[in-house]
Amino acid sequence: MKLPSGSPNPYQIALQQLDIAASYLDLDPGIHDMLRYPKRELIVNFPVKMDDGSVKIFTGYRIHHSTVRGPTKGGIRYHPDVTLDSMRAMAMWMTWKCAVVNVPYGGAKGGVVCDPKKLSLTELENLTRRYATEIAILMSPEGDIPAPDMGTNPQIMAWIMDTYSMHRGYTTPAVVTGKPVEVGGSLGRYQATGRGVSFIVLEALKHLGMEADGATVAVQGFGNVGSASALMLQEAGCRVVGISDIEGGIYSADGLDPKDVLAHTREAGTVVGYAGADFITNQELLALPVDILVPAAVEEVLTRDNASHVRTKLIVEGANGPTTPEADRILGEKGVFLVPDILANAGGVTVSYFEWVQGLQRLFWTEEQINEQLHRVMVQSFQEVLHMAQEKGVTMRTAGLILAVNRVGRAILIRGIYP
Ligand code: NAD
User: Fold this and answer.
1) Section 402-408 average pLDDT
2) Angstrom distances, CA of residue 356 to CA of 97, 143, 144, 147, 258
3) N or C: which end of the chain has fewer CB within 10 A?
């Protein structure tokens, strides 16, 4: 992750957040300390045969933060800015996310330092199969179940599942989630994170006494999470007026049709150039006067430099870590209601959990059952975090962390320290 100078390192942010949550809990200092460290960290440097016949070395990671509540779960990121500390932070956030929605997993994260857009399909497959083999010492349906994240997709998950299965000698669908439906993926998984974001937006609007019908929305990032969030929010009656991606953004006061923007993006590779909308920068998008802002791209986009320009009432974090602690403080002072990543984007891991259960049982649910169960989990989790926020007089972020750290801390206490 390339951070603007002076930005805190994401692992330091994650540690600060843990310390804040711990200060509200009667947490044993030893258990607090245990939670500060990832349980295990794997760094792999591996060769990949490129199309021109050369061999290139890539670096990858797989970090397990905690295994106390169950096997580890967490995405795999392909991005040039992947670092050990960004993986550590995201693995810790996964532990909290799984605990907030109460799925029986611990947190993990993995990634490869690469730009997937610069690799051919063959190179991407070679890299994926070799990386999967390198991390196979940690990965299994019982121990660690990866999923997609930025730069990876269902096809890449299928290659991971196939590689693992080839080594085992039999097909093991439950080793990875976010797979295509044809090879054991779950219905509704691809849209699950965005669908979860939209359920949370609707609950938050209810809490704030605002109507969904006609509420204006800006979405940063138009990949898996951003596009699904925009589509679902429009279905719920909201008016999506701004959308952006890495190239820039588009704005229309009359509202954009996310389906149409998606069709344009598939052709053009970016939202930019979409007819009938004005070009705006990402900074302008974050400062739009809208009812709802959904950052769904990368981390640390809301910072001390731009948080005071934000003109929304509600922020729902589709991305992981989009808000720095300083921005959090500024937004809190402005009275913005912010639903943190560990709750807002937990729809993905929730349906991943459903996919894993279906894979283990070889018994598949209907899309209706999946969406219904997802709705139940997201609404219940929102209410639990809100209740904690009101009880302790803290922000939704701190409340989510308190709830999660308490659940993990109690599990450690009950299991005991071995030997
Ligand atoms: P993706 O690769 O599908 O899409 C990312 C989008 O963000 C693209 O539109 C890209 O152009 C845009 N983007 C990248 N850098 C940007 C920048 N600097 N400024 C503005 N836009 C930028 O990724 P995704 O899976 O949608 O993930 C997005 C975020 O959501 C990440 O933080 C990820 O960790 C988080 N997340 C994803 C899932 C999931 O199920 N995919 C689940 C939970 C959280």
Assistant:
1) 98
2) 17, 12, 11, 11, 30
3) C
> Is any atom of ligand 1 closer than 6 Å to the C-beta of 188?
no
Task: Give the number of the atom of ligand 1 that is nearest the alpha carbon of residue 193.
Answer: 40
Per the CB < 8 A criterion, the answer to whether 398 and 220 are in contact is: no
- Evaluate: CB of 223 within 6 angstroms of ligand 1: yes
Q: Measured in angstroms, how far is the CA atom of residue 318 from the centroid of ligand 1?
A: 8
Beta carbon of 298 within 6 Å of any ligand 1 atom: yes
Using the predicted structure, report yes or no on whether residue 1 has a pLDDT greater than 80. Answer: no
Measured from the CB, is residue 348 less than 6 Å from ligand 1?
A: yes
Q: Whose CA is nearest to atom 5 of ligand 1?
A: 223
Q: How far is CA 398 from the centre of its chain?
A: 18
Closest atom, ligand 1, to C-alpha of 271: 9
* pTM for the full predicted model: 0.96
Q: Which of 129, 159, 183 is the last residue of a domain?
A: 183
Q: Is residue 351 part of a domain?
A: no
C-alpha to C-alpha distance for 294 and 311, rounded to whole angstroms: 13
| 197 in the same domain as 137 | no
Residues 16-26, mean pLDDT to the nearest whole number = 95
- The domain total for the chain is 2
Say which CATH number the domain at 249 has: 3.40.50.720
